[in-house]
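User: Please run a holo structure prediction.
Assistant: Happy to. Please share the sequence and the ligand.
User: Here you go; the ligand is flavin-adenine dinucleotide.
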Amino acid sequence: MEYNALQHNIIIIGGGPSGLSTALHLQRIAPQLATRSLLLEKEQYPRFKLCAGGITIDAEIILERLGLNINEVPHVFADDIHFDFESKGLNIRIPKRHALRIIRRDEFDNWLAERARSRGLEIRENVTVKNIIPDQNGVTVETDQGIFRAQVVVGADGSNGITRRCIVPKASIHTARVLELVAPLNGGLAPVGANHDNHHAYFDFFPVPDNIAGYVWDFPTQIKGEPMRCWGIYDTNILADEERPQLKEPLAKEMSRFGFDLDQYEIKGHPIRWFSPENPTSVPRVLLVGDAVGADPIFGEGISIALGYGALAAREISQSFQRGEFSFRRYKRRVAGSALGQTLIARWVIAYIVYPLKWRWFQILLWRFLKPIVFLIAWIFVLNWGRRIR
Ligand SMILES: Cc1cc2nc3c(=O)[nH]c(=O)nc-3n(C[C@H](O)[C@H](O)[C@H](O)COP(=O)(O)OP(=O)(O)OC[C@H]3O[C@@H](n4cnc5c(N)ncnc54)[C@H](O)[C@@H]3O)c2cc1C
């Protein structure tokens, strides 16, 4: 196997939002380190990534602080977000702005990679990492294109990533099951009064009493400028010990209410690894970011979270190089103590309250009648962490 003799400061494995955010933050706070960094990506941009592409305000704040203008990426806006149980519930609006921006991940990740590249990051596409072997002096990264060496490796390779499997093979895993499809805006023959408006995003928690600890979503989106809807179902698996219907059943049921036949569309699935305080974050010389550590357990939201991990990892790496010490012992505490860690811990607690209390009456109470409390909890614990992360 070919040996790439150059020792890099940092090798980032995976060019999704967490890997690219790590690189962009390094370029900002430690440019001297960033110049000898390398990102390895197994696909070629613009590459497909299964994702509904809902971006919250926290992601926008982080990108803005990096000097990036997300308006350059094709998008649609949802003016408000509905959190429903059986089509009735509460909706969240943010005064004078959109509640959710929806992008396509092939376009968003490609844009982010171009920006990082234009600031000096070396990205090698079509390189699949096969093995990661840390030792006292550095890390060996074996790929299908040869062997690389680095002082530090960042595992940004997503929910099924090889980095986590190499460095902490026995760690317990919490993963959600997720199915998604994209349908034409007017593909359904909706009965009168049962139409979802194209300027709104919908989450419906009606599958919870059937032991699917999650929701069905319906977002506006676009493909090459054509307005579409993105439908999907998310199940944390928190109620996996109970009897559950097939995952696509509630999705098919909800779509049929709007005149859509699920079987007419290509449906795709992918797991989301979600955050739990026990999830490992690093071993000496290797640290994890994004889904490799864990996304939001309640909704499976992971884009803003991935961008946030990148900010924390860059600071951790920069300080490690200053000290000449790469144990990354403090990284877990840094994550937990950060605004990102606090929202993740809060969301983990909330997921373990909201989903096991699965009774229909409780879900109706929660989404339809406890609006002020839900708003307050969302405002304090779920949103608004992006401004406080450094
Ligand atoms: C169906 C679905 C819908 C979702 N909807 C939303 C949503 O609306 N909003 C939201 O915020 N989040 C959503 N998420 C979650 C979100 O997609 C993830 O949290 C986010 O992509 C995590 O970013 P990441 O950079 O950690 O990993 P990824 O985006 O998965 O990026 C990992 C990268 O690593 C590369 N890679 C993997 N293995 C290797 C290897 N061995 N060698 C080299 N490269 C490798 C991959 O090609 C990829 O580019 C959704 C997820 C799913 C599955």
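Residues 13-19, 40-43, 49-54, 128-129, 156-158, 161-162, 178, 180, 232, 270, 272, 290-291, 295, 300-304, 306 surround flavin-adenine dinucleotide (CB under 6 Å).
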